[in-house]
Amino acid sequence: MIMPADAAPPLSSAEQLRYARHLGLPEIGLDGQHKLRQASVLVIGAGGLGAPALLYLAAAGVGRLGIIDPDQVELSNLQRQILYDTDACGRAKVEAARDRLLALNPHLQIDAYPEAFALANAARLIAAYDVIIEGSDRFAAKYLVNDACVLAGKPYIGASIRAFSGMLAVYAAPDGPCYRCLFPAMPAPETVPSCAQAGVLGTVPGLFGVLQAHEALKLILGIGEPLIGALLKIDLLTMRFQKLRLPCDPGCPLCGESPTIHTLSEAAFVCAASADQPDAALPWLSVEASRQRPTLRWVDIRTPAEFAAGHIPGAIHAPLDQIEDWAAQVGPHDHLLLYCQRGGRTVQAYHRLQSTLQGRVSLLRGGYEAWLQGMSAALPP
User: Fold this and answer.
1) What value does the mean pLDDT of the chain take?
2) Counting C-beta atoms within 10 Å of the first and last residue's C-beta, which end of the chain has fewer, N or C?
3) What is the pLDDT of residues 56-88, one digit of tens each?
4) Which domains are present in the chain?
């Protein structure tokens, strides 16, 4: 609950200097800066989107920030997640983020949650903050955030990115649409590539994360025209910006005229196996275990661009979209070890090949990145 500006503690001299460029704007001024200091924002996902969003929210003086993310900082994050540096690799993202944000602005309260946003904590976390920023890379989390925000009456800013483009909107605001108005049901996980599969130029999540922070500040300050009932799409290769109308759907199962979703449900958010949570029932092999089996044929199922950029020496290249045709030529006694960037795509390939190569296909746990990490660890310091 944001207290009236006249009841808020006065800004210190240091705060007046820090926020001088805000105080000089008639749309913000002292009252607006008090609103920012009394506001709270929960950022779900401290990755490519959440990292720049957090930096700008902290710099703007949003008084309380919540960060939820279960992951540790990895070297492959640093191409786009500018909140972290090389020395942070191996640390919990939320802890590294908290230290960096407090170094930027010590006047803040930072709540760090080193866990996944899930059914068990969704309602509690959403209820504790004024505005939510959704920066997850998993559709399951996107739908859970949406449903929890609609049921709690809390607005959130959601973004999705891929390669060189993305889209952004404010969802679950009063009289505005929700994410299910745009996408009523979650797509099959195997149809949606992650950043590890499709790749992304680092500046793309940077721009969209900043725009998420910008929309959050507008909501807190009550200024401008937030993206409520509108969808912003940006293609950064052509620099084409499109602002499309996004109306409420009367038939929406969550916020429509006759909703069928009234409570959060875990069953709706079951995901297929991912690189970080591999299906234990599948024939995974670690890099070390794979090296103990010299008869395995290593098969790289990534795209031609990924393969050309670097691959395991001696590996055969058989892109995922051609894997079934390629497998028809495999000898009757060949045993294959499939790998992609992190492991997710090999699950798809395994299911495609299971009937024809049953018992002769293994999957590299952690994919090419795990192999690279092993090579890096073997080098002298």
Assistant:
1) 91
2) C
3) 999 999 999 999 999 999 999 999 999 999 999
4) 39-269 (3.40.50.720), 284-378 (3.40.250.10)
**Model confidence pLDDT, tens digit, residues 296-348:** 999 999 999 999 999 999 999 999 999 999 999 898 889 999 999 988 899 98
Tokens of 234: 């940006």
Instruction: Taking each helix axis as running N to C, give the angle between helix 203-221 and helix 50-60, from 0 to 180 degrees, rounded to the nearest 10.
Output: 40
Three-state DSSP state, 42: strand
Angstrom distance (rounded) from CA 237 to CA 38 = 39
Residue written as token pair 């993310």: 69
- Listed in sequence order, the DSSP H helices in 130-256 are 139-152, 179-182, 195-198, 203-221
Backbone phi, then psi, for 298, in 5-degree steps?
Answer: -80, 130
Does residue 102 contact residue 11 with C-beta atoms inside 8 Å?
no
Among candidate residues 112, 66, 58, the one with its CA nearest the CA of residue 83: 58
269-304 per-position pLDDT tens digit: 444 444 445 566 899 999 999 999 999 999 999 999
361-364 and 284-285 beta bridge pairing = parallel
Q: What share of the chain is helix, strand, coil (3-state, %, to 5)?
A: 40, 15, 45
Task: Pick the closest to residue 83 from 107, 112, 63 (CA basis).
Answer: 112
